[in-house]
Amino acid sequence: MTVELMATAEHAPHREEFAALYAQVQQFYAHQMRILDADADADADAVEERWAATFTEDAVVELPLLPAPLRARAGLTHYARAAADRRRRAGSRLHHWVGMLDVRPRPDGTLHTRCSALAHATPPGATSKVLYVCVMEDVLVRTHGTWRTAHRRITRDDLA
Q1: What pLDDT does 57 receive?
Q2: Counting beta carbons within 10 angstroms of the beta carbon of residue 76, is it exposed (0 to 12), middle (13 to 18) or buried (19 or more)?
Q3: What is the Cα–Cα distance from 16 to 95, expressed in whole angstroms?
Q4: What does DSSP assign to residue 109?
Q5: What's the pTM value of the predicted model, to 2 decimals?
Q6: How far, in whole angstroms, is CA 29 from its chain's centroid?
Q7: Strand order of the sheet with strand 70-71?
Q8: Is the N or C terminus of the chain more exposed, i.e. has fewer CB atoms within 10 Å?
Q9: How far is CA 30 from the centre of its chain?
Q10: pLDDT digits (tens, 9 = 90+) for 74-99
């Protein structure tokens, strides 16, 4: 049996450019998740504000258990602070992993991405436990030379 791998029409013309773009997007997600996973002793307000700054000013984030999308950086900051407070009270360290990343450039310069995301917690002195298995779909835009999330939709496997 012979298997032939073919590039999609979207990615074929400029493979090196796409590879560089793909690496940028991976780095963006690594940076964004590391901010979320910051040390519990770090200045909580600064962490949540840095995380919110990885989104556009008018970003929209759809989360599975919220009745309405979060809108704008202020909503994101408030949500991130509340989640961090719950984590600190529980005493667990939270870590995120992003993989199986698919990046689709659009003619308007935005990127549509889709990836798997895992969130796992490690209580003091205990074994890590996977909390959520999610699919994360984003629209990324370039703002002032960096990628930012303009729209995010997260779906959880256990709620689908």
Answers
A1: 92
A2: buried
A3: 31
A4: S
A5: 0.84
A6: 6
A7: 70-71, 55-62, 146-156, 129-143, 111-122, 93-105
A8: N
A9: 8
A10: 888 777 777 767 777 777 888 899 99
Token code pair at residue 140: 């990324």
Retrieve residue 43's tokens: 């200045």
Helices marked H in 37-124 — which ranges? Answer: 44-52, 72-90
Classify 78 in phi/psi space as left (phi over 0), alpha (psi -120 to 50) or beta.
alpha
DSSP 158: G
Residue type, 96: H
Please give the backbone phi and psi of residue 13, each rounded to the nearest 5 degrees, phi first: -65, -35
Q: What is the pLDDT of residues 11-65, one digit of tens each?
A: 455 889 999 999 999 999 999 999 888 765 566 667 788 888 999 999 999 999 8
Spatial distance between the Cα atoms of 86 and 89, rounded to a whole number of angstroms: 5
DSSP string, 2-50: -------TTTSTTHHHHHHHHHHHHHHHHHHHHHHT--TTS-HHHHHHH
**Which residues partner with 99 through β-bridges?**
116
User: How far apart are alpha carbons 20 and 46 in whole angstroms?
Assistant: 30
